[in-house]
Fold these 2 entries.
Entry 1:
Amino acid sequence: MSYPQMSLQASLQELLLEAQAYLSLFHHECGIPEAYPERLTRMQAEMERTGSYWHTYEELAYGAKIAWRNNTRCIGRLHWKSLAVRDMRHLETAEEIFTALVEHLRLATNGGKIRSMITIFAPAVPGRSGIRIWNPQLIRYAGYCQPNGSIIGDPSHAGLTDVIRRLGWKGGAGTPFDLLPLVIQLPNQPPKLFELPRDVVLEVPLSHPDYAWFARLGLKWHALPVISNLRLEIGGISYPAAPFNGWYMGTEIGARNLGDINRYNLLPLIAEQMGLDTRSDRTLWKDRALVELNVAVLSSFAGHGVTIVDHHTASRQFLRHEELETQAGRTVPAHWVWIVPPISGSASPIFHITHYKNTILKPNFFYQRVPWQGPLQQSITLLTQKNLRNATASHVFRE
Ligand code: ARG
């Protein structure tokens, strides 16, 4: 037997074991264990015939919910059962996929009353690249590098912004909050760009209940966080394009996105507006600015009727989730570093629980290769001739 055949056998064997494990879990948790043996037989037969198998809608939907439940980086897992699952495995073109993504934004935003939702596109076929959405989230703000090294917009998306421009995007208006177009790539095809219709992106202008000057800063954030670059794995089947969303916890925006030094870095500006003494760290000007920025985020979202949760409530809900899971005979694996809120850590009960185990169970969501950082040759063939003319490898493929 030659090596390639051996590895093919090994991966089939692996797929079979993963499929067995998930289908058994599915039938047990759904209270239909008597249906398991027959399903197992059908799955094995299908695998012998085709080298893979196709999930029923119920298996797909329940698998996506468990992937959320198993994700150790999420504090919001109390709501795992309420995930709405859209089966879009039949879509075949980038245009159809884009339309489904726009529809996802509409349905999940729901006028501000946010619904947790996942849209699942076709699974990866072994030995071939799958469908990829290049953007880490469906709604992201561009980061434009300036000649002096500074960045207008979101610095964490400067790399992606650069790549998208090289794919032909002319750039937006140049504000700190320009929406990036979506990049959708089908297997063995060049990536395609799609501009989001403005009206599907709900945004919240930020103001502060006590500081009139706050609104004049012109800050805002989008209502919906839809993660679009993780691979969903259920029963050995990979879904490399399966964007999903919950609603925001305030600190994600108020502490991290707007406060982090390598993001919008707004604490100095806010502290200055508050009249704080920023010359010494000991005045705790950063802490005071952080708190007010977070007050602004929470009250602005609430004022605009957009779902958001504060970190104290989210912490309590997480403990409730643990209680319910314990009652169901399961433990809750968690990554402490991720689920302790980034401000006022010790005021959250989670901070004081130190026994969490970061065990990775499946189904789950996994990181995958950054699409534009693939092997050089592969990426070059994906670029159009036009793009190639004004790009050299070194500055196209930089991180
Ligand atoms: N932290 C990310 C952001 O601010 C979003 C991650 C997912 N968050 C969520 N609440 N589901 O954009």
Entry 2:
Amino acid sequence: MKLKTKIHLYSTLLMFVILVLAMIVIYFLFQRMSYNTEYEELLNQSNELTQAMSQLSPEADSSVILRAFIPSNGVIEILDEYGESMTTVQSLAGSKITPTDKKVEDEYTLGTFDGTDTLSINVPMIWPTGEVVTLQMTKVLFDAANNLRVLTFVLAGVTIFAMIPIILSSVALGRIVTQPIEKLTHAMNVSRQSGTYEKIRGTVNGKDELAQMERTFNEMMEQLEENFTKQKEFVSNASHELKTPLTVIESYSRLLERRGVDNQAVVDEALTAVLSETNRMKDMIEQLLALAKGTEGRPLNISRVHVGKLIESAATPLRQAYERDISIEADSEWTIETDEEYVKQLLFILLDNARKYSDGNISVSVHTHETTMEIIIKDEGKGIPEADLPHIFDRFYRVDSARTRKTGGTGLGLSIAKEVADRLGATLTVESSIDIGTQFHVFLPKKINVSQ
Ligand code: ADP
């Protein structure tokens, strides 16, 4: 069964049952009230009759008094002490009222006469002759039965009328609930069949859970599409970048094939080029692997480390390999709680860039703030043009391909640095002026938040 039909059916049924129960309760309450009124009336009449009888002389005709007190549509019967009928007077001409199916309530007895309820009361009374008798007054409840019949029609009518808006609202409810689900299913089907990232169309501005579900779905699709586009771009960039060194290697190999190995100058040039391109490819593949693995894989390994020592350990290999001056200015007492390996990797990328893109002095300074420790890596190189600054953290982005080709750059270093910084909860900013130099600022949290 469709969800819409289920909602429709169950809500209508439930409301119908509630309505019918309410109507039944109303019916019985009304019946009880009208029977009580009839009972009170009979009781009053019997009191008056008892009083009138008490003033009657023994010789008087008691049936005249009894007749004067007969309830409309009723009967009065006097029973002697053995329960035998002494006299009976009744108002319904031609038919004797003898209730059947008697049901004794607290104060009165209910019976039926010709399909209509009757109500009887028994009251002790002193007969004019002095003996104690029982006065039994019975009334056929024609009026109450009529009223109850009218009430039944009214209640049935109200139930039928009330069902119309209930049915309409349950249809509307079914539509409200199932429409977003249908839209969602449609969008997913289109996505599956066409291989696109279909979003839910129409208004999704509502504040309810269904609108929220639609918005979340659209956001998820947007994110998936963005990730897919990024991945596609990454793969095409990576293959393009790997193709370049391969082309260089291939062309030098063909050159050697054509010209043979006799020309020493050509051989040297070819070997140098092949070696350098192979190294570049190796670096690139290593960095690609680092990116593919991401920083998500390894859990953070947090310990308290001395910032100065940490910078030293990142700078030492560069000093030794390239014989460059790297000055470090940091208080030896300053420590932070962080992942030592990640910070070292981040600093190494920034220091290596400073080395690659400058010839002068490289300096590292540390400044402490309330919650962060700021490390500034400063060089006096060519700088980065302002227009390129927003893109330098993008994968494969290089300011000047010719320049980086010479330095062996791949355009991946800073994007890895950014990922590592994010993992450490650190902020990475850059300031640069052409021909003056570049400064990278790393704001490391003094105490890393483990949930990151
Ligand atoms: P690469 O491997 O090419 O160095 P990066 O992602 O590390 O890739 O850097 C991206 C670009 O930013 C580089 O191509 C370079 O032009 C520029 N760049 C990075 N650091 C510096 C710096 N310290 N001085 C000048 N330019 C820099």
